[in-house]
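PT: before anyone asks, these are the final sequences, not the draft ones from last week. 850 residues across everything. Please model them as a single complex and drop the result in this thread when it's through.
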Amino acid sequence: MTAPVSDHALEVVNLKKTFGGLTVTQNVSLTVRPGERRLIIGPNGAGKTTLFNQISGDLRPNSGAVRLFGADITYLPPYKRAHCGLARTYQIITLFASDTLEHNVTLGLLGLRKTRWQMWLPLSFYHDLASEARKILDAVGLLHLAAYPVSEIAYGEKRRAELAMALAQRPRVLLLDEPLAGLSNTERLTVKTLIASIPRETTLIMIEHDMDTALDLAETVTLLDYGRVIVDGERDAVIADPRTREVYLGG
Amino acid sequence: MKWLGIALIAGSLLLPPLLAGDFYVNLASQILIASIFALSLNLLVGFGGMTSLGHASYLGVAAYISALLTSKYGIGHGAAAAISISGTIAMAAFFGVIALRASGLGFLMITLALSQVLWGLAYRMSNVTNGDNGITGLTRPAPFGISLDNPVSFYWFVLIVTVAAFVMMTMFVSSAFGSSLKGVRDQPRRMAALGFNPWLIRWITFIYAGFWGGIAGLLYVYYHKYIHPSSLSTTSSAEALLGVIAGGSGTLGGPVAGAALVLLLKNYASAYIERWNMLLGFVFLFIVLVMPRGIVPGVSRLVTSLREGSR
Amino acid sequence: MQFWIIQGLNSLSLGGLLFLLSSGFSLIFGLMRLANLTHGAFFMLGTYFAAVALRSYEGLNIWVTAIGAGLIVAAIGGLFERLVLARLRTNPLGQVLVTLGMSFIISDACLMLWGGDSIPVPTPQSLQAPTRLFGFVFPTYRLVLVGCAAGAAIVLYVLMERTRLGAMIRAGVDDGQMARAVGIPVSRLFTLVFCLGAGIAGAGGVLGGPILSAYPGLDADMLPLALIVVILGGIGSLLGAFIGSFIIGFVYTFGTALFPELAYIILFLPMIFVIAFRPQGLFGRVLA
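LR: through. Structure below.
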């Protein structure tokens, strides 16, 4: 995937999505610069996850474009977007419950490598994959759980594991869909520290519907309501904007 | 403990020709052929999460092509086998493209419809397939000049192929590709987000399962020296599916145990009961209602709990 | 010319029969997400019922027989649904396997009870004389059959679109969870729809008797046709089942008449086309 170099890591241009008679995404446009930490907020039903789904390819927009580092990915299937450097986590945990944590991260590493087509040698033969997986688990503080099946680890640890899997792809753009949902206060702090430590080579775009939790992780904020961009800009400016208060406190 | 199990299995595989009479050796050959067929279906059902009710298509097509080439056109067994398998693979590729437009129940219905169409063709195109009379008077191959006409030598031949099939499928399932297949079965969206191509992974698996189904088909027609449209029937596909589910899908030993059980049941039941299909139906109901995970997982859970209980 | 007219009428009557067969299948699949592989056997039970009843009782009316068979098959279906299928709500694969098993049981039972020979079903006396229309001769029974199918389609349409029951069924088809949440008794609805589907198939089997005859294997001949109709027409769509039935009726009849050996492949072609370009069928919705 040779993308022409562009100023923007992710561009969403006039994206529109309708379901039957309902317009869920209305002419949404966004620009995210490389290395930026963007937070997308909005009340329930604002269309945040639908927007993510169109960026990741799980949904096809009716019109508009999505560009990754200048390359048009609007109609690319999700797996090809991964090869362009896109990664995402999901609102609900989508780990492989009956497999070990190490195996989960190994799959995350395998997805972008030619090795994934190997049909003869056992996966365990690839020691370099295993050691890299363990290194990633160590970086997120989960190495001690490497051999445990995912079904047996705590919810907060699963959230960190999801993150580890996405980071294993060394993505250029990482979409985090409510990464802090359902976490206790201590767990939340651990995950936030983790997110804060992600290197600048990865551009971060996060969704949270609870404004306060993720604000300190964000540099820029986009506020969505009823599928439309209401306010968009530097964090402090968006917070101070009267329209933001209106959206959250008004109807 | 594991070595004891392996020794027992090796023993039960090697002993029949040495100890038992022809009837039992033939029965053992049939069990092995059914095992390969069930294992090939399990690649789809257990490891791929794609339940097919049309797997008999591959068995039947390979069998018919080989039968026709050797009997009507006088082609040697080696070439006939190669052409049969190539044809079966091509058909699997084609059917796979159609069936994989859907998933779950839609996939099941399409595989069923496709295999019923083939079955109907086998009956109708009687100037090619001999219709309801089937094709008789077939021969067995003689690899390296060794005749396979007696039960014992045929058994060794089938055993070698079965072991090769088992080994290759084990390698397939534990490989990187096999892991990606299981991943696609469990979380297809996540796998796509990681960079895996779910459709291609499923399609390749579908073809590979069709390949081994075809191999089972060749062994089947060599064994019986006869082929009839009923080998393409839903009953044939259903027996394999029952074997997979009764034995326990998602394991490699399960389908073998299940296939053995179904075949033994069929052989012994038909001595006492005329209505094999009805019995098969009741067995389906029983297995699904009482032992949905199958026998092998059930037994292994039992063994684990016994071991844990004795600590 | 007579040939084409006759084949045309045969196509229509086969289409009508297929509608009676597949409308139930489509309803059951649409509402219960269940591919009811017993459906061919339900149809066959109706045909055997007709064969036995109409040959044993001289003056028995075919319409009464159809209703009777419909009720009996509906009852059998209902028992099966309550005792077996209801326990397997969380096991969709298991549900398919038990319907398959049940189809084996029913078909073998028929074989056991009535033997392996084909039993013809007498055409009702009053409809035996051919009809003359526009200078052509039509077998009257087939004309009536088309009328029955149209009638059934209208009744089903009114049921689905104009009654509360139909509204509940449609709600269940569209969104089962939501339907439960608003108090629709989805479980009882499932049983009712299964009975309805089975009953229509049974009645259809009776009406198809004079044309098809009762023979072992009728279920295996009819089920793939129902599958192809529903794949073509779209799951859960009565209109799709209606149109699909007649398309397949035409394709199969003309195919068998013109290219007898390849009739099955010709059947297969519209299905492939539709799957390739519109996997949800002509009128179906894309299942989540």
